[in-house]
Amino acid sequence: MNKLTILDKIVFILVIIGGLNWLLVGLFSWNLVSFIFGDMSILSRVIYDLVGFAAVYVAVMMPKYARK
What does pTM read for this prediction? Predict the structure, then answer.
């Protein structure tokens, strides 16, 4: 069994953060990222980009992990 790399762990954390933020938006119409970093500020856009790239990484790497 392969161990998770540092990149895998970071991606996992980012996907969890993104999922929890969407849960808050869906249940309470409250966006945690916008609350902390401002509505569509540069920093909030960077957070959204990182979470999006993390989701793409997970989608691409999922077949690799599913085979093991």
Answer: 0.83
